[in-house]
Structures are given as C-alpha cells and as structure tokens.
Amino acid sequence: MALIDRLQRELQRQPLATNTKKARKWIRDKVKELENLRPELLMRDTKRKRNTFQLGKMYFFNYNPKWKDILPFYDIFPLVIPIDFYSDGFLGLNLHYLSPTVRAKLLDKLSEYATDNRFDEKTRLMVTYSMLKSASGLEAFKPCLKRYLTKHVTSKFLMIDATEWDIAIFLPVESFIGATKTKVYRDSTKKYQ
Length: 193
Hints:
By secondary structure, the protein is an alpha+beta fold. The chain has one domain. Strands 1-7-2-4-5-6 form a six-stranded antiparallel sheet. Strands 3-8 form a two-stranded antiparallel ribbon. Strand 4 and strand 5 form a beta hairpin. The model has no long low-confidence stretch (mean pLDDT 90).
C-alpha cells in the first residue's frame, strides 16, 4: 500500500474530523516518524501518476530547473498547485517554499476558492494570479509562485486528491538545492510580511 494511502486510512480510523486542527496535529505527529522519507518512495505510487495535470489540483513531481546555475536555491521535488498554462509550461504555487504551518494556513485560505465543499477527488482550487494578488489574507502565496517549463519536468505528475492535501503539505520531502529549508522559509517570510 502506498504511503499516502496508508496515512489516509490511519487518519480515517481516528475519531477526528478532517481538515481540523486536531487532524492536522495528528498528521504532523505521524509525519515526524517519517523524518527520512525520500521522494522516490512517493513516486513509486503508480496509481496516482499522471502524464498531465489539471489546474487547481495538487501534484508532486521531479524538476530540473533551466536556470539552476543562477538560482540561489530551488526545489527539485516541488508540491505544486498549477494555476495557469503557458505554451512551454505552467505557473504554479509550490507550497514547499513555506513552513508546514504556514502551508496549512495558506491552504485553508485557498480552500475558500474550491469548486465544491466535498474536498474529494474532483475538487479543484479556482485561483488565478490576479485573484491571488488582490485577495487579502493570501500574501503567503508570493514566495510560492513559480513558473515551470514542461521540458524540465523529469517525472510524471503524482496527483494528490483534496482528501489528502493535509497529508501532502506535512510530508518532509522538500528537496532544496542551494539552501537549507530553514533558510528558504526565512527568506520566504520576508517576501510576504
């Protein structure tokens, strides 16, 4: 059984309502046991892999940036919500640029723009760049906004259903090159405060 499925089933057995502070605390505590979790383990989950993506869904994938030689740091295993298509790629929110606590707060705010309130496999977030810029309470999106080139995506997209977003945001699989995650979080905070 794939890791995300296993965590989801364990969470469902708890007497906790999903998308609550108590459920998120349970997930954070459970994820602490996975300190050495590697992205490769997640990418073995063949039933979630997709060749393409949909706007407003959440995905993990491997990425090799075109401009890596001049970037101060970058994430080679982003957790992204794509928000716009380009002819050569897409614009997305890489939640790894925020600490897990801030990710959860931003995801709560973004959830107000969900296509439905079921938060199931059909749920998507209907967000655009112009909406993010003008909405109050969403300032934390700024360091997350990244443009991805299709030719530099080096794996399939691992889709995360809305029922599992809380699990995905707490998984310790951010893979930054050029800086520690602590430095990335600190730099990100400066961009939205």
